[in-house]
Specification:
alpha+beta; single chain
Length: 64
């Protein structure tokens, strides 16, 4: 499993720009979302899932 720093290097190395890192947590009194391997009490305190929002800048040159 990669660390956050490793993920940053992998994504940036692939030419991606990281726009956001979203750490969703389930609403109080609900289950633990899509990740059924983590206990709900754990998932409510720490993010059990991560969403990396990235963009790949265009490499095409603008027409002149």
């Amino acid at each position: 499993q990669l660390t956050y720093g490793d993920w940053v290097r992998v994504l940036c190395g692939a030419g991606l720009v990281i726009d956001d890192l979203i750490e969703p947590r389930p609403a109080p009194g609900t289950g633990n979302g899509c990740n059924e391997t983590d206990p709900p009490d754990w998932a409510h305190r720490w993010p059990a899932e991560l969403l990396w929002v990235t963009d790949k800048p265009s490499t095409r040159r603008a027409a002149t």
